[in-house]
Amino acid sequence: MTSSLERLTGIAPFVYAADCGSFVAASEQLNLTGSAISKSVARLEQRLGVRLFERTTRQLKLTDAGQAFYETCTRILYDLAEAESVLAAQKTTPAGRLRIDLPASFGRLKVMPVLTDFCHRHPYLRPYITFTDRLVDLAEEGIDVAVRIGGINELPPAIGHRYLGCERLIFCTTPAYLARRGVPATLGDLADHDNIVYGNANGAMKPWSFPPDVVTRPPMMGYRMMVSDSEAQLAALRAGLGIAQIATWLVDECLENGTFVQVLKDVSQDGLPLHLVWPKNKQLLPKVDALLQALTEGLAIR
């Protein structure tokens, strides 16, 4: 039975002989003797059971069977050359599978636009993107790059990280709500307003955050709605249900187009830090290095 290696043997000498029109000319291209080329083609003809060339003293001419086989062989050699080019390109060009993990809401609203542009510029990449707010183990889950909102204390030495800035927390609502309920002038006024608060997994309200220089802070108060998802809090705001303290990355477009209005501007402050994290042993891979650069440029808070 003919092996795959045996099938490949003789293809290059045959194709070069057909292209050059003689065994001698083909031998010069392949750094072989004319006799070696002739014997290789003869073995190929014997194995195939057909004549590939009409031989004359002056030139070689492909038979009909030889012409058909030549076209097949040239496609095979082209595909092999293309495969080698792709493998070589991976050493310098971002290519292959890229595993990315993102915070759910921030990932969908802010990171995905950066990633879609990144993918347009690097067509050989195959990203696999997950959205989760849990603390993932990069090594165990095979993640190349992750975006994290929050602290990154006690990272293992094998994990690299890059600080991108902090969220900005503000109080805001809709113009319709303010027209109906009035504009709060102080933090204490929030006690007389409907508040849309963020709830922790245990059902407890997440406390509001205030700048260090704010001495008088409002006591814990009731709320109109408590949600455990940022996009749900955004939806409640859009519906005009009350006032919320929320990160600007969630509402910046709404503030620009007038859908939302910021209130109590003097108590806006920094929120959670934003980081990129990745396994250090992957940083030199072109796909990881390119992604880190794209996310740094696209997400950095200035």
Structure, described:
This protein is of the alpha/beta class. It has ten helices and eleven strands. Strands 3, 4, 5, 6, 9, 10 and 11 form a seven-stranded mixed beta sheet that branches. Helix 2 (11-20) packs across helix 5 (64-89) and helix 3 packs across helix 4. The radius of gyration is 33 Å and the shape is rod-shaped. The model has no long low-confidence stretch (mean pLDDT 88).
Number of DSSP strand runs: 11
Helical proportion, percent range: 40-55%
Largest sheet: 7 strands, mixed
Estimated radius of gyration: 33 Å
What class, by secondary structure content? alpha/beta
Cα separation of the termini:
68 Å
Topology order in helix (H) and strand (E) letters: HHHHEEHEHEEEHEEHEHEEH
Q: Give the oligomeric state of the chains in this entry, treating copies of one chain as homo and distinct chains as hetero.
A: single chain
How much of the polypeptide forms β-strand, as a percent range?
15-25%
Overall spatial form: rod-shaped
Task: Quickly count the helices.
Answer: 10
The overall pLDDT, averaged over residues, is 88
pLDDT below 50 for ≥5 consecutive residues: which ranges?
A: none
SSE blueprint:
Elements: H1 4-8, H2 11-20, H3 23-30, H4 34-48, E1 53-55, E2 60-62, H5 64-89, E3 96-102, H6 104-121, E4 125-131, E5 145-149, E6 159-173, H7 175-181, E7 196-198, E8 225-227, H8 230-238, E9 244-247, H9 248-257, E10 261-263, E11 269-279, H10 286-299
Parallel strand pairs: 3-4, 3-5, 7-8
Antiparallel strand pairs: 1-2, 5-11, 6-9, 6-10, 6-11
